[in-house]
């Protein structure tokens, strides 16, 4: 979620890291980007250029910033989502095609003008495909952000921490990052709401999966005093 008072450069860089890390093959990839109306066009423009700068190629090359999808099945799945996005009317800003002639490489892809009911907005693509969506009000934003079967993670970018904390309370996500993304700590529980899983990893909550609880009930004789 990018508000119009956010550190714009940081929001661009972090949202791209959050999505394109590991070719989008990450459980908490920031694939849906909600951008406030007043900075939406600028965000789309800069995101498109940022995606074009990514270097696709051999992951063992230190100059590479995006490698291949994990296998042929995943490659075909991601490409089918890209085709679905185009057919449903999303604006393809860049990418959308296979990269090169060998391997399972996909061009970094950015869609704009994405609607909530589109397949690419409702389902987990698990690939290098960004969906940028416009919002106008807080009430609208919270409703749309929560309108999903998933609830693993979310990010909020704004210089107004009070606003960020208010929005955070209403987001149905197990982890919310504010002005950052994909930041983990061994003491901080990680897990999702809804179809994004049961239980938590890390932190004190994460230890509960490795423990057993014993309940003991004792009947005590009636006291004589």
From TrEMBL:
What Gene3D superfamilies does this protein map onto? Aldehyde Dehydrogenase, Chain A, domain 1, Aldehyde Dehydrogenase, Chain A, domain 2
Pfam families, A to Z: Aldedh
Membrane-spanning intervals of the chain: none
InterPro entries tied to this protein: Ald_DH/histidinol_DH, Ald_DH_C, Ald_DH_CS_CYS, Ald_DH_N, Aldehyde_DH_dom
Task: State whether keyword Oxidoreductase applies.
Answer: yes
Keywords annotated in UniProt: Oxidoreductase
Q: Recall the GO molecular function terms of this protein's record.
A: oxidoreductase activity, acting on the aldehyde or oxo group of donors, NAD or NADP as acceptor
Report the superkingdom from the record: Eukaryota
Q: Where is the Aldehyde dehydrogenase domain?
A: 1-216
Annotated family: Belongs to the aldehyde dehydrogenase family.
What is the name of this protein? SJCHGC03496 protein
């Amino acid at each position: 979620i990018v508000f119009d008072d956010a550190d714009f450069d940081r929001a661009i860089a972090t949202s791209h890291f959050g999505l394109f890390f590991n070719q989008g093959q990450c459980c908490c990839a920031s694939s849906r980007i909600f951008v406030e109306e007043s900075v939406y066009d600028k965000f789309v423009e800069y995101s498109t250029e940022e995606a074009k700068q990514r270097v696709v190629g051999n992951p063992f090359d230190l100059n590479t910033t995006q490698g291949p999808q994990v296998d042929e099945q995943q490659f075909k799945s991601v490409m089918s989502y890209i085709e679905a996005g185009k057919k449903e009317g999303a604006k393809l800003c860049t990418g959308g095609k296979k990269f090169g002639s060998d391997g399972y490489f996909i061009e970094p892809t950015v869609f704009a003008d994405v609607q909530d009911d589109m397949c690419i907005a409702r389902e987990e693509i698990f690939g290098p495909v960004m969906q940028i969506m416009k919002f106008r009000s807080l009430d609208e934003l919270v409703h749309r952000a929560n309108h999903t079967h998933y609830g693993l993670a979310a990010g909020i970018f704004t210089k107004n921490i009070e606003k960020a904390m208010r929005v955070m309370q209403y987001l149905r996500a197990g982890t919310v990052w504010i002005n950052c993304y994909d930041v983990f700590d061994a003491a901080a529980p990680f897990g999702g709401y809804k179809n994004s899983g049961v239980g938590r990893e890390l932190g004190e909550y994460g230890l509960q999966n490795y423990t057993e609880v014993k309940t003991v009930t004792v009947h005590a004789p009636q006291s004589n005093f």
